[in-house]
Design goal:
Layout lengths: L4 E6 L6 H11 L4 E6 H7 L4 H17 L5 H5 L3 H14 L5 E7 L12 E5 L20 H13 L2 E4 L2 H9 L8 E3 L22 E5 L8 H14 L4 E5 L10 E5 L3 H10 L2 E4 L8 H8 L4 E4 L4 H4 L6 E4 L4 H12 L2 H17 L3 H16 L2
Parallel strand pairs: 1-2, 1-3, 3-4, 4-5, 5-6, 7-8, 7-10, 8-9, 10-11, 11-12
Length: 372
């Protein structure tokens, strides 16, 4: 039997899941693909439900009683489910048929002996500890953390989206640096080919795109925008992806929108602002950069990889309303600076943060293991 198939394993729904699959298909056009969902495997094994619920209460019960998380969320984070899925994968991935397996994220160890196994992740659980915003009471139990460590050690290569996560896999999990490769990521929006109107840089429109208003720093932006209005009463703030209840002049709260509609708002904005407090990656930054928008953000997580202070945007400390307002005011008052930052960000996306380049980097790393 020929090893002509790639086992593409999705460990949970991720906004970039389809983009990652398409990237991998284009990077390995000479292979068949088999899509494997860990969620489907869990649903299939109904006998796991009762014992796994016992583990939910054993490992997370105290936190659940105090209102931290839900049973549904914790159901997928038990050591029982981790071990059961690792066993089940041996019935799904076949060393005689699969050339390699490729897993999105690092929630479970989905590799099997005899098949090179690769992970592509934007986060580790312990990376969250670097943020003061992270509630330490949400840290998963030591037994689960010990299993997470095996995810990285058992992988043939660990691909990451950012240099900070690569460093954490080495520093916090003890994985040899040569096994960890930062390949970055691409945007989920289609390539922007239409000409972009440079007049928008003078129109003082701030755009926020994010689903978690609190974690993404929305309240900080709202307060900073009040100060922006004192200097520029005609400035506008558009909020996409969240539905906060705000009493804020010149503010449009649009909630969730289809991706194509979000593109319309990127194309009309002057500045993109996402003052996030905790961020595994932040694909919205790449989307904004693809539309040649200057960025005002925070120096957390992967953001400094994408946004270089004074080159394609400005970075402030999380929660600093004064600094955030000052940077927004400066950019809104300088259309030429906005244009330069926007063009620099767009070049960065075209040269580094696109799925074709990511696929090339991944294939270069995987190819030697296919020849063995």
């Amino acid at each position: 039997m020929s090893k002509d198939t790639i086992a593409f394993v999705s460990t949970y729904f991720h906004p970039s899941r389809d983009s990652i699959e398409q990237m991998l298909r284009e990077a390995f056009p000479d292979y068949r693909f088999e899509n494997i969902s860990t969620l489907d495997i869990v649903k299939h094994h109904k006998s796991w439900i009762a014992p796994n619920l016992l583990y939910v209460m054993k490992e997370y019960g105290a936190g659940l009683l105090q209102g931290r998380g839900t049973v549904r969320e914790r159901y997928f984070l038990t050591t029982y489910l981790f071990r059961k899925l690792r066993q089940a994968m041996r019935q799904v991935i076949d060393p005689a048929r699969h050339a390699f397996s490729f897993s999105t994220q690092s929630l479970y160890d989905t590799g099997v002996p005899g098949v090179p196994h690769f992970i592509y992740t934007d986060h580790t659980h312990l990376t969250s500890l670097a943020s003061p915003y992270f509630d330490r009471r949400l840290l998963r139990p030591p037994e689960w953390l010990a299993l997470e460590r095996t995810v990285y050690h058992n992988a043939t290569r660990v691909f990451t989206r950012s240099t900070n996560v690569s460093a954490d896999v080495d520093r916090l999990y003890g994985v040899a640096p040569e096994k960890v490769v930062c390949v970055y990521a691409g945007s989920n929006v289609a390539e922007v080919k239409q000409p972009l109107d440079e007049k928008r840089y003078a129109q003082r429109r701030i755009l926020f795109v994010g689903g978690d208003w609190e974690r993404k720093g929305g309240p900080v932006l709202a307060e900073a925008f009040r100060r922006v209005l004192q200097t520029y009463p005609d400035a506008r703030l558009t909020i996409v992806g969240s539905n906060p209840q705000l009493d804020l002049p010149n503010c449009d709260v649009l909630g969730n929108l289809p991706l194509e509609e979000v593109g319309h708002h990127y194309a009309r904005a002057t500045v993109f602002c996402l003052p996030t407090r905790l961020e595994p990656f932040g694909i919205a930054f790449l989307e904004a950069m693809a539309y040649a928008l200057p960025i005002v953000a925070t120096s957390v997580g992967a953001v400094p990889d994408m946004v270089e202070h004074g080159v394609n945007g400005r970075l402030v400390q999380p929660g600093d309303v004064d600094a955030l307002a000052a940077e927004l005011i400066e950019l809104l008052g300088d259309p030429e600076l906005c244009r330069r930052y926007g063009e620099s960000g767009r070049r960065r996306v075209l040269e580094n943060y696109n799925w074709t380049r990511v696929g090339q980097r991944i294939r270069e790393q995987i190819q030697p293991f296919l020849a063995q």
